[in-house]
Design brief:
Blueprint: H1 12-36, E1 39-46, H2 50-57, E2 64-68, H3 71-78, H4 91-94, E3 101-106, H5 110-119, E4 121-124, E5 136-138, E6 141-142, H6 151-156, E7 161-164, E8 167-170, E9 174-177, H7 185-194, E10 199-209, E11 214-216
Antiparallel strand pairs: 1-3, 1-10, 2-3, 4-10, 5-9, 6-8, 7-8, 10-11
Organism: Cardamine amara subsp. amara
Protein name: Ribosome assembly factor mrt4
Function: Component of the ribosome assembly machinery. Nuclear paralog of the ribosomal protein P0, it binds pre-60S subunits at an early stage of assembly in the nucleolus, and is replaced by P0 in cytoplasmic pre-60S subunits and mature 80S ribosomes.
Length: about 230
């Protein structure tokens, strides 16, 4: 049997080199984009969904670039302070890169960017560990939304069910999830089977930098929060 490529040893120095090259590539990509386009936006995201984000990103494919990844690497690319920033005042945007955040560098008019971000919102199924936004409880009795073939699967999720004349029947009231508590793997699966979407993928603008001005979008932020270098 041929030896799997997965089993081939990789030296630590080689791994570190690849990691460094990847970071340098991101830094150079951001700096090239800042030179090419005239506005930089910091945005935050909730419940990221890669496929949906890819679809959203297509709207900027001709006049902008998105960057996601290590906030520290993106901060280095822009400059962390007034002394090492790559463009005048852009370090203010760098300071707001924390948590689940990304960069958009674009030439699109600001009104269009704001409109696209503000209008975008997409519901999806919550994943394991996410907080339930509502309590879902199923009452004792027939579960006619499920075909009889699903009875074993529902039982594996901890639901007290049986087949009664070909119909899935819940033997007692069953709480799928409770508001404010994290979802277990079983709860997340049952919600998906029920078609209940509790996650909302959203993109929120945090700030905008251009050579002529700097604008904050997020409530509660003040210019004094970012002007100290």
């Amino acid at each position: 049997m041929p030896k799997s490529k997965r089993d081939r040893p990789v030296t630590l120095s080689k791994t570190k080199k690849k990691g460094r090259e990847h970071k340098e590539s991101i830094v150079n990509g951001i700096r090239d984009a800042v030179e090419k386009y005239n506005s930089v936006y910091v945005f935050s995201f909730e419940n990221m969904r890669n496929i949906k984000f890819k679809e959203f990103r297509q709207q900027f494919r001709h006049n902008g670039r998105f960057f996601l990844g290590s906030n520290k690497v993106m901060q280095v690319a822009l400059g962390r302070s007034a002394s090492d920033e790559i463009r005048s005042g852009i370090y203010k945007a760098s300071k707001l890169l924390h948590g689940d955040a990304g960069l958009l560098v674009t030439d699109m008019p600001k009104e269009e960017v704001e409109s696209l971000f503000n209008a975008y919102e997409d519901s999806d199924f919550s994943r394991t560990g996410k907080t339930a936004v509502e309590t879902v409880e199923l009452k004792e009795g027939p579960l006619e939304q499920f075909p009889h073939e699903m009875e074993p699967l529902l039982r594996k999720q901890g639901m007290p069910v049986r087949l009664n004349r070909g119909t899935v029947e819940l033997l007692s009231d069953f709480v799928v999830c409770e508001e404010g508590k994290p979802l277990s793997p079983e709860s997340a699966r049952i919600l998906r089977l029920l078609g209940i979407k509790m996650a909302t993928f959203k993109l929120n603008l945090v700030c905008r930098w251009s050579p002529n001005d700097f604008e904050l979008y997020r409530e509660g932020l003040d210019l004094s929060d970012v002007e100290t270098s």
